[in-house]
Amino acid sequence: MPKTSTKFDQITPSEFFYRNRDLAGFSNPAKALYTATRELVENSLDACESSGILPKINVRLIPTSDDESKTDPRNYLLRVIDNGPGIDSKQAPYAFGRVFYGSKYSLRQARGMFGMGGTMAVLYGQITTSKPVSLITSTNGKDFHKFSILIDIQNNSPIVVDKDVIQHDGSSGTSIEIKLEGDALRSSSKLHDYFRQTALVTPYAEISFLDPHGRFWFYSQSTNQMPKPPGETKPHPHGFDFEAMRRLIGSSDDQTLQKLLMNNFHRVGPTTALNFSKFVGIDSNSNPKDLSNSEIVNVVDYLHKFDSFLPPDSNCLSPLGSDILNAGMMNELNPEFSTITIRPPSAYSGFPFIIEVGLAYGGKVSRNGVSLFRFANRIPLLYDEGSDVAWQVVKEIIDRRNYKIPDNAPLAIITHMCSTKIPYKSVGKEFIGERPEVERELKNGVREVMRQLRLYLSRKGSAEAVKRRQNIYLKYLPLIAEFSKELSGAKKLPKYESLMKQYSNSDNTNEEADINA
Ligand code: ADP
Ligand code: MG
Questions:
Q1: pTM of structure
Q2: Across the beta sheet with 157-167, what order do the strands follow?
Q3: Which listed site, 57, 130, 150, 406, has its alpha carbon 20 to 30 Å from 233?
Q4: Among 17, 45, 46, which residue has the most ligand 1 atoms within 8 Å of its CB, making it the best to mutate?
């Protein structure tokens, strides 16, 4: 038998996603159109919010001129313009021309997390239409840097095809234009769900969308209250691993184990660092660079076991809060009854998180069973609902008999998880994994809003029963008066007007006031 030699090769991140684009949510032209739009909008929202700017985002999706007469799938032009802080002109080509290049790798709550969403949209556009991406960005509102960029996929680096600077009086922001193959017919409903649900949790943003059918959708800004920008935090010892520790020791100048722990970990002070050193049995004054491999393994192992570390502080997180969530629910669902519960901060594997749950009943809420709107760091999650921990929790809890909810009740539940790291099950950011701590907080939140709904429905039920009784009295009182006059042989009807007045005045206004209290 002839001997064949095995050929080895290596590929870059761009090449990897070029070959496996399904992993990033670009599996077919319909999903790709949706994912590309979403990634660009999310970049704009992240950028505006991190600079405290009330977002104004304009999205346009139209068939390209040479493709207008064709049917789907065909080529589209996707343009997203924002009023954000803009991108530094030296970074801009890399931000969109290199996979895994971004500004969100620190521990901070953000929509983007892999440095690849917007870049993947550019890459997908390039491989389906061979056209470069057009980017205009300004950080000062005067110099507008224009770029035409292609990605050198084999080398994972940008090729600047064209660039220019235009002076112009305006405001900072970014405009990005991608030509890509898409299927608008099959992605239309997901795109509209996406914008509507985004409006639900970002009522402080103004978003307009010109869809491929020429329809214009406008989501107005209904509050100018913005959640505080998320802060950056250090890693918590419970979430640290061996590789991270090896790198930290390599790069830090800290001379002692105690200093290393104090300066690089979240909520570790001198006493905790000292107690930890005793716990692991290593002198707190030893130089971390002198630790042997097995000692480093020990340190990391004990970091996870030591239970005197303070839990992660959630101050760096930026939950929506009741006012903003309520403004979004009123605007988009206009419910008859709504309630919100914000769970106390919690943590999984050293990452802090907060769960917020809203419930809307009646009004514009659809009657087709329970609608669940899932959000993670303010991103609507529209695919793979069944695999998401939130859906599993809601399915388990919502037993209509337990909460006395009528069948076909118009009920919407909104779950929002914010964290420095969302435990997504895929890079496509579509569903959250079952972490026991996350599951527990979701359960408590959903139970609480359901209890509130049950209370509302039972008060409403008794108010209606009272009203029904009063209506019966009002109907029969004159007859009873007439009968008693005949029976007693009196000449006049007994005085019952004041009773009538009492029943008709004491209609259910007081009860209503109670219900809404
Ligand atoms: P990610 O959002 O996961 O970091 P992206 O590929 O989507 O990755 O974006 C890469 C980087 O480009 C971001 O980290 C951000 O710094 C920058 N960026 C993208 N879009 C914008 C925008 N509209 N305004 C400002 N910066 C942006
Ligand atoms: Mg992104």
A1: 0.82
A2: 157-167, 143-152, 133-138, 173-182, 74-82, 56-63, 206-210, 216-219
A3: 57
A4: 46
